[in-house]
UniProtKB/TrEMBL annotation:
The keyword Hydrolase applies. The keyword Mitochondrion does not apply. Residues 59-264 form the HD/PDEase domain. InterPro entries: dGTP_triP_hydro_central_sf, dGTP_triphosphohydrolase_C, dGTPase, dGTPase-like, HD/PDEase_dom, HD_domain, PHydrolase_assoc_dom. It comes from the Bacteria. Pfam families: HD, HD_assoc. One of its GO terms (biological process) is dGTP catabolic process. This is dGTPase. It comes from Sphingobacterium wenxiniae. PANTHER family: DEOXYGUANOSINETRIPHOSPHATE TRIPHOSPHOHYDROLASE, DEOXYNUCLEOSIDE TRIPHOSPHATE TRIPHOSPHOHYDROLASE. SMART domains: HDc. One of its GO terms (molecular function) is dGTPase activity. Keywords: Hydrolase.
Amino acid sequence: MNWTQLLSAKRWGYEYRATGDPLDARSEFQRDYDRLIFSSPFRRLQNKTQVFPLPGAVFVHNRLTHSLEVASVGRSLGRLFYNLMKKENPNIDEEYPFLQEVGNVVSAACLSHDLGNPAFGHSGEAAISSFFTDGQGQKYQDEVTAEEWEDLTHFEGNANALRILTHAFNGKDGKGFALTYSTLASIVKYPCAAIDGHVKGNHHRKKYGYFDSEKESFERIAQELGLVKDPSNPTGYLRHPLVYLVEAADDICYNIIDLEDAHHLKILTYEEVEELLLPLCGDKNLQQRLEGLSDTGSRIELLRAKAINTLIHACAEVFMKHQDKFLAGTFEQPLMQSLDENIVRQMKKIEKISVARIYNAPTVVQIEIAGFKVMNALLEEFIPAYLKERKGHFDKKIVAMIPAQFHTDSTSTYDKIRAVLDYVSGMTDVYAVDLYRKIKGISIPSL
């Protein structure tokens, strides 16, 4: 793979290569970012759970604030990489005209990386998958292909994001978001189909990156950008190199910022957070600065900023140092696992504490259970009603609740199920709970 082909301003749905107006205020990749910022799917992230329940008396991150912070870190990672390249070769812009845009590409991809996540986070994904593996959805297995069944039984938010960005929904622009090919490729962490994913020890196939319905779409992107075929999977590909920077930005943010939220909610003490973050800060004078702040929240903010800065520089340097491996597709682990051994060791401590004290905190577990039940119940109502050929009165009422943009004229069982999943997976936590209550008769809508 090479940067000349990997960094393409060609837009999804258009056959020409966009070059941009030199007098325009924005590059083509900055346009990607702006299109995402102003979109409805992105705004809905403000009411989707990141880790802790929403809303609350104390501010904690939701999917929207998380995505904005990941985009900020991603931009810095891309920019640092470009600066390192420029330092090594002052004429790099002549060789790779779009390399200076790497920060913008990564930032836009980071902004959209959680766009396909359903309400209640991973619990929502599990609920959708479980409906088909253990629930009423089991009966549809004989009506779909093996590839389609793997999609349904392993719902993946990353694959759903690619669908949201490229699918022609009813009444919407047939070109989807019309993002550049490079931005689209940079969100696909596992460039293979569901039936080829979930392979232990294979970084490119740990999960999967596109539904069967988007297989041809991703192949168009891969061929345009010159992605390399995966030698272990003839139908899949190796990652676009910038995926590693998007993944690193996400890893940096949730590992560090979840500690900040845990402190706000009094799950972790200041002393515990300081012990975890201080070794990552790399500032000999930091302890003195911390002692000068009487507010523990301000101390945590300073620690968080310093730790993130250390991780950004470390990741950018590794990406630069091993650039040949990333371009060859032979780098077999996340950037965050490839840093200095002291950093990796400290990050493992953070992960251990996070799993034990944060991700299994009572409030987190409670919302996971509740969210699972809510999502499963909605699927039990909408999918059978939508798939019935002879709909009863109640079925027609249920189907009428699905917005027109999600309906399909296809007679395929898979396409019909996918249409319902498009609707349900796009719901916010608040909307899903409210709809669940109304459908179950727990609350009656006011006239």
